[in-house]
Write a structure and sequence with these properties.
With about 170 residues, the protein is α+β, with helices and mostly antiparallel strands. The protein is about 45% helix and about 10% strand. Helix 2 crosses helix 4 and helix 4 packs across helix 5. The chain starts with 6 loop residues before the first helix and ends in an 11-residue tail after the last strand. About 35% of the residues are buried.
């Protein structure tokens, strides 16, 4: 189990996370530790949603569903520009959408809560925390300046994102 009372252990685990399951596990634990809420049974869809010039949709959660859909365009762009942003970005986006899945639907509330959670478990200066307060700072690494087309008819599905977390704690 992760000890969230030491920022350095969370940072270390995020730095070494090997896949979406491990990053999402950190997101769930951070939320449970800070606001004592959780849910199970989420899937992750990864789809090329593209981006317009200097704007993009990182992910979305269809309210009432059991899926978070992540845009693979920024992931591809990060791979081309600054791979060190991959894990912090995925943590940030999954945290944001996970909060939506818990019933927080107001964007302003979710951004504030995401910042509070990141600051507590990762520290104010961590990239994920900074992304929650100013994603524009990272745009050169997240979007294609002239845009990138969407490919909405293909989605990779990662079922059981939480790795079989018990529905009853």
């Amino acid at each position: 189990m992760i000890c969230y009372y030491e920022e350095s252990s969370v940072k270390r685990e995020l730095e070494h996370a090997a896949n979406f399951h491990e990053i999402f596990s950190l997101v769930q634990a951070a939320v449970r530790h800070t606001i004592n809420e959780s849910r199970a049974g989420l899937n992750l869809g990864i789809m090329e949603m593209g981006n317009d010039a200097n704007k993009f949709l990182g992910a979305f959660y269809p309210a009432g569903s059991n899926i978070i859909v992540l845009n693979s365009t920024p992931l591809r762009r990060i791979g081309e520009t600054n791979e060190e942003l991959f894990r912090p970005y995925v943590f940030h986006v999954l945290l944001h959408e996970y909060l939506h899945s818990l019933g927080y639907l107001d964007e302003r509330t979710v951004r504030q809560l995401a910042y509070r959670i990141c600051a507590k478990v990762l520290g104010d200066g961590h990239i994920s925390t900074r992304m929650t307060s100013n994603i524009d700072e990272f745009f050169p690494n997240l979007v294609y300046p002239r845009g990138s087309p969407a490919v909405p008819d293909k989605m990779i599905l990662i079922e059981d994102l939480d790795g079989g977390m018990d529905y009853i704690d």
